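input
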Amino acid sequence: MAKPNYRHQKKQREEQSRKKQEEKLRKKAARKDPLSDPEGAGTGEDGQSVVPSGTGLPSLVPLVFAALLLALSMPSFAQPRPEAVPGNAQANRYGNGWECSRGFRVDKGACVPVAIPGNAYLSANGGAWECSRGYIKAGAQCVAIEIPEHAFADDTSVNPGWQCERGYRKSGGACVSIKVPADAYLTDSAFGRGWECERGFRAVGESCSAVDVPENGYLVRTGDDWKCERGFVASNRSCTTVVVPANGYLDVTGNSWNCERGFQKEGSACKQLTVPANAYLDFTGNAWRCDNGFRRQGVSCTAL
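output
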């Protein structure tokens, strides 16, 4: 005799119980919402269709009809029609609207050809023109540049359209020779005097004068002036020794001195600080402050 499968029987009972529970919930929901039935009817305990009084689809017909009339009476908000693209143009690649094709430019909402004069070429943007090298713009034309002696045409199409050769500077409509004094050299600048003094010299008028560096001094980075070495200070065009008193030290510049912590400058010496009761040295180390709850009164700290 086969042994009964209790596990299978238990599973069947659980499945039947679940189905019964779902059926009860469905019937309960149908009673609460009779419109969920296509005919506007709910379902009773016996599974028969039920239509509660005062409810059902016929009562909704006037509302649906009114909503339809309201919708028809409202203005229509249609999407704006896209802007028409004129001839010799295409849709803008970086947004709305359109742009003219290369060789055309915008004129009164249309794209007209770019009129390129003689000795000119279409610019990089394709909507204008530039003069060829050796020519300059003059209204709607390109005229030849009159290049003076010791000059050359540059790469611009604006006035004057030329630059002077190295060793010359512009003066009116001509290029004049730059007079470089002794101990100087030509610069590449198109402005200014056109020359600079060698290192160790400084410009004085139209000449270069030697920089007189005193003993214990050195030329600065620019090469046209001097400073004193560390431990020396400038005095009457010379460098004199910085006298550091006892309990003092050279400062960061190297041309002066400060007092050690706990000392204070007094003339050319460092005097020891007397810190009163209820006080402390401040962050500089060369003065004192009163503790919290005290205030300074002369050379002492009194309670608040």
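quick obs: The first strand starts at residue 42 and ends at 43.
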